[in-house]
Automatic annotation (TrEMBL):
InterPro entries: DMSO/NO3_reduct_chaperone, NO3_reductase_chaperone_NarJ, TorD-like_sf
This protein's UniProt keywords: Nitrate assimilation
Lineage: Bacteria, Pseudomonadati, Pseudomonadota, Betaproteobacteria, Burkholderiales
Protein name, as recorded: Nitrate reductase molybdenum cofactor assembly chaperone
Organism: Bordetella genomosp. 1
A family per Pfam: Nitrate_red_del
NCBIfam families listed in its UniProt record: narJ (TIGR00684)
Region (Disordered): 193-227
The keyword Acetylation is assigned to this record: no
Amino acid sequence: MQVTQHADADIYAGLAMLLRYPEAGWVGALPELRAALPAPTRAALSPLLAWLANGADLIALQEQYVETFDSRPAHSLHLFEHIHGQSRDRGQAMVDLREEYLSHGLAPDPAELPDYIPMFLEFLAQIPPADARRLLGDAVHVIARLGDKLAAVQSPYACVFAILRGMTDVQPEPLPDVPEGDLDERPVLFGPQAGGPGAMLQQMNGQTAQVHFHATDPRRATPQSGQ
């Protein structure tokens, strides 16, 4: 499939990468990522880019990521979890979003949840701009809420959601709280190497790429020695 290039495609693709679990490959490619982003976006991302570039070590970055997104259901990177919790309505919302992917010729791995935000942003980077704006406008209510929660705990990731909030004219509306018991307490499963950093950076440089949606969390793929 040919990548649909539009003014915001590089931004969506870059933000998708930055919301992944920190891996040596893409963290090491941060200079290339920075160069592919528009200057205003680089400036807005400076808290996160500096934190990633100046982190004590990769393990510390990974631990902070897990603490931010995996250990706190209120910070889940799954859109519909913030609206429906684990109710039946969430399942129908997943079906509808998957159909949206399929309608643009993208087939997500059925083992992965289609509302995973990095996957969603990769999708926006590869569809016509009018469709991307429409879908971002639909999601901005959750995105704004999650960004506010991250800002309240001074997370460097908050700037990603602030940028997304500014990429749509839709004004976020308050969302009712989902009871904590309805949020899945299991760690969020995600694919930090979906397409790989090389494929995403190729896309941001205007080259042809394919979307690959992975269900396997590489942190769990290889048994640790001694286990």
